[in-house]
Amino acid sequence: MRILFLGDIVGEPGRKSVIKFLPQIKEEHRIDFTILNGENSASGRGITPAIANDLFKAGAQVITTGDHVWDQRELADHLENEPRILRPLNYPENVPGSGEIIIDTESGKIAVLNAQGRTFMGQALENPFLMLEERVVQLKADGVQMIFLDFHAETTSEKIAMGFHLDGKASVVVGTHTHVQTADERILPEGTAHITDAGMCGPEISVLGRNVDSIVYRFKSSLPTRFPVAKGPVRLCGIIAEIDPMTGKAKNIERYNRLLEPSEM
Ligand SMILES: [Fe+2]
Ligand SMILES: [Fe+2]
After folding, report:
1. Ligand 1 centroid to residue 143 C-alpha, Å
2. For the chain, which terminal residue's Cβ has fewer other Cβ atoms within 10 angstroms, N or C?
3. Is 68 a catalytic residue?
4. CATH number of 2-260
5. Domain ranges in the chain?
6. What does 143-172 look like in DSSP terms, one character per residue?
7. What is the pLDDT of residues 3-60, one digit of tens each?
């Protein structure tokens, strides 16, 4: 089972590029299952139902999110009718949507989970380490071997710790949120594929997807500033992981990292 995951899609440049190139990437890399993090796909802030539909049409099976999930107001209602868009699972139970979906594939069931870290993150959510430990054991007991987690967190330590925490239990643990791809992809000792951060799909000449001048101005002046999404060439970042469907263990993980020139757009 070959899984493609693309990290935080930022604004129009990111989503247009993903929509245009996803079919080609899937064919070229013989991808069986595609997961996208869409938390910044609407002008950098959240995701709308229309954008999510475009990403599904382009070939995604599941869309994960993170701390920006509530930025577009209409999404909360939409989550109740669209189980393929996940919000972090460690919100309180009365919050709309779900942090998990189980999908039947030709290779067996796969569970996709989305959780948010707690270190240097805005919201005070439930402890994801305790919640996921319990949930992953239950999924295995229910016969779900393939388990993919998008762990949306700020610190490298929390994301690496989650990888080891679920090593041998989850198939893939991928970090998101910091928008910069790390070069530490590996299979952990008990068979979980891990990378600290998958990186983003967004403008190359930017600060985490936003216009450089406005961010530099903010740091120079300390004044509140608007941060428009940057323009120009786009880089697509993520990972491709291969999982043994019988055991749920990962066989391989590699980084996906491709700079698209304006001529390709
Ligand atoms: Fe993000
Ligand atoms: Fe985020």
Report:
1. 32
2. C
3. yes
4. 3.60.21.10
5. 2-260
6. T--EEEEEEE-S-HHHHHHHHHHTBTTBSE
7. 999 999 999 999 999 999 999 999 999 999 999 999 999 999 999 999 999 999 999 9
